[in-house]
Amino acid sequence: MEDIKTAIQYHQECKQETGITDSVAFGGLMGTLPVNKQFKQHVFCMSRKAGVQNEAGEIQRDVIKEQLSKYIDNDKVDALTEQCAVDQEFPEDTAAEMVKCYYQSIRKSNILW
């Protein structure tokens, strides 16, 4: 529950920074992943706040593994991180591609349930 509260707080803070609407942001969380610049900036903002990427946009794989291990069996964490935590040319693209990959991988394999 605490993670949800934190995510909502990050969303509100990043919403102020990016100007994204709730429908676009939450559409992304529900699987309708927009590819527009505003969504990418919003996801990068949230990624930085969560410590998943640093200010330079570098992926913090240890943080990702720590967070994933709360919800996913440890034997799947490394493979999922290797598959989804892939640097792109721009930090915003990295953040957006990670969200897309994690969402698709988790949904496809029913890792969480």
From TrEMBL:
CDD domains: PBP_GOBP. InterPro entries: PBP/GOBP, PBP_GOBP_sf. It is found in: Secreted. Its main location: secreted. Keywords: Secreted, Signal. Gene3D superfamilies: Pheromone/general odorant binding protein domain. Pfam families: PBP_GOBP (PF01395). The keyword Membrane does not apply. The keyword Ubl conjugation does not apply. Belongs to the PBP/GOBP family. This is Uncharacterized protein.
